[in-house]
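Handout, section B. The chain below has 354 residues.
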Amino acid sequence: MTELAKLLVRRIEAEGPISLADYMAMCLMHPKHGYYQKERVFGAKGDFITAPEVSQMFGEMIGLWLADRWAAMGSPNPVQLVELGPGRGTLMADILRTIARVPGFAAAVQVHFVEASLQLRALQKEKVPAARWHDDLSTVPAGPCLMVANEFFDALPIRQYEKRDGLWFERLVGAEGDMLGFTLGPADAKFALVPESVKAAPNGSIAEVCPTAFSIMGDIAARLTAHAGAALVIDYGYARSAPGDTFQALKAHQYTDPFAEPGAADLTAHVAFDRLADAAREAGADVSPVAEQGSFLMTIGIGARAQALASRTDEAGQARILGELKRLTAPDEMGQLFKLLAIQSPGLPPAPGF
């Protein structure tokens, strides 16, 4: 039993069952025992690998996309370059290396990281020492802005609801002895955020909603309506909301019971891109269609980049590069599951790749 599990059981014994959102927040971000306070989270020796860790080509393509949007904005100087949930800083390091070739862009950029984990901030500082760190977007300076959120929204706490005998109940986290697991309680006010199409699902269905995601997306869009800019969201999820249980835990690159070792495994849920798009439009921003990662990356040139890199190396290097390309773009790898959404200031030309 982990130390965090003991804390959770004591809290539930004192207060009663807690929301899944509260459970996720404690598991991921508890200041002492939370998952993101672990020394190793990302990479082969961690629990999962993100696209920037797969290949430098991913960050290079995102850098080129940002350069295109900077030019479309009129090449402002300065421009705030913000990454939400920057992991180990690998993506931003690759972006900065790429945009250094774009005249004037690197000199105009001021890098900001939105990161709550002190452990991850230390890793990020090794890769991007000139960055500034923030707990949320509110302290990022105003002005023209470019934002990236890669596998950020999937880790935000969700609420779940279950339909039984025509009625919806909230799935709460309870405890029996030292065992944690789901129990049901009355649906709370957040249930109003569930789309009507999902509410009409049959008995036994699970509905998910992420109020924090809507709030953050509203903040992003509000900033982009007040100042010129663009944001790129990359994550795994679905283009259109549907009933289903996507809450999952990952440890050592394997799925595991999300209640077995609180604080020792990553907890995530699929992102509802249509709901993010709705939140951005409500705040006045322009929103792209949803794109699959494979088609997006191929459209903006990753195939040509892979060929160029492969031409400079030996046979083993070529096989590695082609393997990385497949991992990022193939439908049975990351190509279809991962999706992208662009949010922009009104009036900017359409974003490439969509």
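Note. The mean pLDDT is 94. Compare this with the example in section A.
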